[in-house]
Design brief:
about 90 residues; mainly alpha
Length: about 90
């Protein structure tokens, strides 16, 4: 007598789902933190209007942060965005 087992696909594996959710949370939290740190740094430098514009157009934050030589904030922003984007792609599968 053969016992049938439920088939676990990649999308139905609960551990994989938990890992993807954890990666999404960490990536998004890192992105928001790096973004706000960049905006605070931009607000402390002139021209100050860049901080306000970066709030509305988030992609400008790492660009202007790099121009203002905020290398760590720029790298963290780009790395967090990459982690978050890859986790979104993995979650969509």
């Amino acid at each position: 007598m053969q016992v049938s087992r439920p088939v676990l696909t990649a999308s139905s594996h609960p551990m994989r789902d938990a890992e993807i959710v954890a990666t999404l949370v960490v990536g998004f939290a890192g992105l928001v933190t790096a973004h706000l740190a960049s905006i605070v740094g931009l607000a402390a430098r002139s021209p100050r209007h860049r901080a306000l514009v970066a709030l509305v157009v988030p992609v400008l934050a790492p660009y202007w942060a790099a121009k203002a030589r905020m290398v760590v904030r720029t790298v963290l922003w780009v790395a967090s965005f990459a982690v978050y984007a890859l986790a979104l792609v993995a979650a969509a599968r």
